[in-house]
Specification:
single chain, mainly alpha, about 70% helix
Amino acid sequence: MLDHRTDRPAAPIDSHDSVQSARAAILASNGLVLALALWQKWPVLALLIPFLIENLVIGGFTIARLVQGAHERLPSIANGKPLDDAAVMRLVLATGFGFMYTMFNLGFFSILGGWDSFRIMFQAGGPAHENTHGTSALAVAGFALMMLIMVWHHYRAYRRSMVIDRIVPLDVTQVMLAPVMRVLVIHFSILLSGVLIMNYITGGMDGLGLDSDKLGQLLIILFMVIKTVVDLHLDSQSQAQFRRVAQAAE
């Protein structure tokens, strides 16, 4: 298979093992978040913090896709040759997207309590013991492992996108909308979970016979199941698009 723009061999079609490793990465990273949330007794809204970080990672790779190709023309500036209009537009869009997307996520992070909420997530004994000064080394190690797996997974997805972008024209609008839509779906799910908790606390769900802590854990599990299904679906779409493009280019 050749890259039609460069006449160089493009990356091979993802194998079954690659698809399985992507699914395993999703299950492992989300499973670690779930285990940490239940073990450390995170409040439901605290789940937004690791996923805000994941959003920033996805945003970084999205910016890299937007500037792909434009950076190849940067040396022309040193030679007194201006960037072409397409390259300039990509750089402008990447800058604007990066600023707005980062401000949105950092603003959300601030609303959730910022670094204080982040620190409490790793408090020895969980948020219920926020007056304890110790930090759970195991919780920090588990979170770090989750981050490594998550970044590795999104990097592999980015590499697939790079191959696609070299073969077919880049749809800039779709590239920018994809992470935004993902944020809306996932954050809406967890905010809905928060609303359900508030309804229970005010007496709207007394019939379940659950105290607020148990209901919170149940909603955390429910949310993580929803997020995992969304992640697997999005990855399946990405894998399928890669195979279609790669097969058509053979």
